[in-house]
Amino acid sequence: MAAVTAAQPRSSKTESYVDNKRKEDIRQANIKAARAVADAVRTSLGPKGMDKMISTANGEVIITNDGATILNKMEVLQPAAKMLVDLSKSQDSAAGDGTTTVVVIAGALLKQCLLLLTNGIHPTVISDSLHKASTKAVDVLTAMAVPLEISDRESLIKSASTSLNSKVVSQYSTLLAPLAVDSVLSVVDPAKPDMVDLRDIKIVKKLGGTVDDTELVKGLVFDKKASHAAGGPTRMENAKIAVIQFQISPPKTDIEQSIVVSDYTQMDRILKEERNYILGMIKKIKATGCNVLLIQKSILRDAVTDLSLHYLAKAKIMVIKDVEREDIEFITKTLNCLPIANIEHFRAEKLGHADLVEEVSLGDGKIVKVTGIKDMGRTTTVLIRGSNQLVIDEAERSLHDALCVVRCLVSKRFLIAGGGAPEIELSRQLGAWSKVLHGMEGYCVRSFAEALEVIPYTLAENAGLNPIAIVTELRNRHAQGEINAGINVRKGQITNILEENVVQPLLVSTSAITLATECVRMILKIDDIVNVRIMKWQSTAKYLLSSRILYGGFFLNFLFCLFVFFSKLCFLVNNETIHMQHAHLTIQALL
Ligand code: ADP
Ligand code: MG
């Protein structure tokens, strides 16, 4: 009897242990998977970081240093690891830069969390302490930041350069940084001085030349040539431009039908009708004084035919066809005109005016440039050049980061030093604060402070320096009150990083810390993974088929036959409806 009573508590203890073990295992698996993702991008942090070559399934190759792009292209399956991919995306949309930093910080925080968990601290306590620490961190960073005036072009260029320095195209930062600053400043609306919509900056990529040939165009650039059919004009001064969304081609019937014409006179009549129809349209267009037509790409029928191009060329109207639907908004905003959806609405007041529209030869292709636009909207175009597609694409991604950096500074006008200086200062101040806090909280905040050292550590490691010596020296300098001491990766030593002009927007650093903490807290709070199977009809059929083969039971056989019968029936009914619709249309057409 005594043996039985003795055995009971032991078994219940074993059960509860197993239960906890599962939760612990899931937490650990999540943390390990997420850390693996963070480790994958760690080597690309900083100006001396490595680049990644990504080869996609369809044979496309991308060379990049951008954390968000690397993670986006990775096929991550583990749900917690996917959260890190999303984290990088959120940083991309919140700040645009710091996409590697955010993931590296999250990885370091997760490593510290694992230690705290193994020391027996409850996840909720860890999570709450992390939140507290991140709020304090934002306060510390804000106190460190230097205010900036939007008219201070030099400082804006410095921060755009910092962002570009760590990219593959870093040798062109002297050209791209001022270009990014000028393009963002030119789209800022004085009515809303802290709002920048990057959709107002259009990036056009054209193969040929080098990145040095990249230029800012005050106007529009089309990566296509003008229509050369029938010797139409390819250069137009004093242009009156219409953006049209209708087709200059004979109308089509609503339903598919064929007309058999056996008589030549009838055929002539049809052609004459067509010609008159098109001529009528072109006369209306010409009457408004329009001499440049931008024609939206049409999928229903050809936007222009050989015949209409011929007449347009005769009327000395320059034609740029196949303009994408999504570009119409940008074009009309730039030209300060209205898109025209129907020939009946074609009026002179809807046209845009420009000094010059011309086709220019560039490399092995041609582009069309519209310059000297009257009352131009607040938009700008950047024409990126490069010797190969890989360079052009990376230049575009790098420019996007630089544009985002300037946008951050326009919306929150504070600068902060780079080169690991803010992180080590945060680590020092939070470490000191943790000593004031009581109990587990202080312990967790100290771990948070230690995790932040990952940034200077990685920057030094990637630059081929001794990370332990550098971080120790950095801590020492900060303890002596040099809050702007950072890693000068070029000289391989610690200097005042503000003097080196390595500055970044405050928003990038604060959003990296808050987003990383949020993500880690979310991963910490997960203690189970539940798989839900969605029963679509295909998977139902597969399931029934496999279980039929496995068990071969009568009932399952019956169920399978019933399923097949009903799905056939559904198919027939569907087909019947389609037939009915066809018949209905045919009857309508006949009537
Ligand atoms: P992210 O994708 O996170 O922006 P980067 O590869 O651009 O990653 O690296 C950003 C980090 O590199 C920041 O911490 C920044 O302070 C640091 N950094 C950038 N330029 C320099 C430089 N010239 N010297 C030292 N650190 C730099
Ligand atoms: Mg960057």
TrEMBL record:
Entries under Pfam families matching the protein: Cpn60_TCP1
Ranges annotated as biased composition (Basic and acidic residues): 12-21
Localization terms from the record: Cytoplasm
Record's keyword annotation contains Nucleus: no
GO terms assigned for molecular function: ATP binding; ATP hydrolysis activity; ATP-dependent protein folding chaperone; unfolded protein binding
Protein name: T-complex protein 1 subunit delta
Keyword line: ATP-binding, Chaperone, Cytoplasm, Membrane, Nucleotide-binding, Transmembrane, Transmembrane helix
Function: Molecular chaperone; assists the folding of proteins upon ATP hydrolysis. Known to play a role, in vitro, in the folding of actin and tubulin.
Biological classification of the source: Eukaryota, Viridiplantae, Streptophyta, Embryophyta, Tracheophyta
Family that this chain belongs to: Belongs to the TCP-1 chaperonin family.
Region: Disordered, residue numbers: 1-21
InterPro entries, sorted: Chap_CCT_delta (IPR012717), Chaperone_TCP-1 (IPR017998), Chaperonin_TCP-1_CS (IPR002194), Cpn60/GroEL/TCP-1 (IPR002423), GroEL-like_apical_dom_sf (IPR027409), GROEL-like_equatorial_sf (IPR027413), TCP-1-like_intermed_sf (IPR027410), TCP-1_chaperonin (IPR053374)
